[in-house]
Amino acid sequence: MPFQEMESLIKLFKMKVFLILFAALITVSSFAQTAELCQGAYFTEAEGKAFLEKHPVTSKMAWETRATQIRSQIKTGMGLQTLLAKPTSAPIIHGKKVMDGYTIEKVAFESLPGFYVTGNLYRPIKTQKSYAAILCPHGHGENPHGRFREQTQKRCATLARMGAIVFVWDMVGQGDSKQCTHTMPMALKLQTINAIRALDFVSALPGVDKERIAITGESGGGTQTFLLTALDDRIKVSVPCVMVSAHFFGGCVCESGLPIHKKGDFQTNNVEIAALAVPRPMLLISDGGDWTKNTPDVEFPYIQKVYGLYGKTNLVENVHLANEKHDYGPSKRYAMYAFMAKYLNLDLKAVTDSKGVIDENPSKVLDQKELEVFNTEHPRPANAVMGDSNVLSLL
Question: Rounded to 5 degrees, what are φ and ψ at 109?
């Protein structure tokens, strides 16, 4: 056999061996990562309670050491040790609607080059010297999706009538956010980046008081709420609704699809993550019809102890609605309005009637078409990256 031909065969053999080993490495890595995912009801209720008992709150120093570990694993598990550069393009804002005491605008901005966050911006009509800003991530739900649902529109509009600038944006794959599916493998990382960029967006709006920025969301939006609060101290007030649980870790890839809760011998849960809000004001809203049914007896006392290390037990509260189910319904919203008014200096009287009862009637629910960002006159930007594989390449 000629030498050159033999040399080519050897190179080909080496390449095949490399590819086999590389494929094996990817398979092992993927298996290891999957084994470290904590999805859905990862613990039983008893195991969730026992986990907290095995990690008692003993001292401020011990907690802060633990907090550093938890934040580190969230970032490592998402691959967010270094945040990707913020795009320099200007936000797209159009379609202003004047309502009863507030306005609504359509918004899109890049969180990554070629990926657009889409949503609605609610502003009070009344001119003020400065404004609180509230981020409102939404939860999962059937049509109408997310930000178009009645409970979401009512929440945003009423907060704006109280004097806050409010921004609600789409989960990936919902509403106007159709550049990838909601079940793409790195949805958790992408939605966290989107939340950080949403915070950048509201922080830069004229008149926003950076010491009065809050976040509240339900279900999957509750997960976004406590994750952003844990990672970014620009959030000053937090209200996670129907989500903080000792045993349930989030049932969607956008909540638990990456190894943020477990790595080797390290393990945490969403109660510890939510407690990273300390010492900032936080309201836990829970109910008797989902995985937050034990909050008054399990999750809330644990977080109270964490706040107690800082002498701030008065800054964390729990409103438990034992006869209600998994939503952001009226009574849950009323509790949140009062909490936001207290800590953001908002005008609760602006949304209450003569008997002191909160009146959401002026907060109108609009048709989806009236709120959509992209249409014939305002098409999706030409540089928008489309498809799961292409969006994954950005991440």
Answer: -150, 160
Q: Which domain holds residue 19?
A: 1-35
Do residues 23 and 112 share a domain?
Answer: no
Task: Please confirm whether the linkage preceding 144 is cis (ω < 30° from 0).
Answer: yes
Instruction: Supply angle C-alpha 333, 338, 340, rounded to 5.
Output: 90
Question: DSSP assignment of 204-252, as one string?
Answer: TSTTEEEEEEEEEEETHHHHHHHHHHHH-TT--EEEEES---SS---SS
Q: What is the pLDDT of residue 29?
A: 39
Residues 223 and 142 both lie in one domain: yes
Do residues 215 and 225 touch, judged by C-beta distance below 8 A?
yes
Question: Are 117 and 255 in the same domain?
Answer: yes
What's the first-to-final CA gap in the chain, in angstroms? 48
Q: Taking residues 366-379, what's their average pLDDT?
A: 95
Answer for the pair 239, 160: CB distance below 8 angstroms, yes or no: no
Ranges of beta strands (E only) in the chain are 92-98, 102-112, 115-124, 131-135, 164-169, 208-218, 237-241, 262-263, 266-267, 282-287, 316-321
Based on the fold, state whether residues 28 and 101 are members of the same structural domain. no
Does one domain contain both 103 and 215? yes
Is residue 230 within 8 Å of residue 71, measured between CB atoms? yes
pLDDT tens column, 222-264: 999 999 999 999 999 999 999 999 999 999 999 999 999 999 9
Range scoring the smallest mean pLDDT among 16-20, 77-81, 99-103: 16-20
2 and 130 both lie in a single domain = no
Same domain as 316, residue 173: yes
Q: How many residues does the chain have?
A: 395
Specify the pLDDT at position 177: 95
Give the Cα separation of 131 and 93 in Å (integer). 19
Q: What was the pLDDT predicted at 145?
A: 73
Residues 236 and 211: beta-carbon distance below 8 Å: yes
Q: Are residues 21 and 117 in the same domain?
A: no
User: 377-385: long-range contacts (C-beta < 8 A, 24 or more apart)?
Assistant: 378/92, 378/94, 378/95, 378/106, 380/116, 381/92, 381/108, 381/116, 383/113, 383/114, 384/114, 384/115, 384/116, 384/179, 385/114, 385/115, 385/179
Beta bridge partners of 238: 215, 282
What is the number of structural domains in the chain?
2
CB 334 within 8 A of CB 352: no
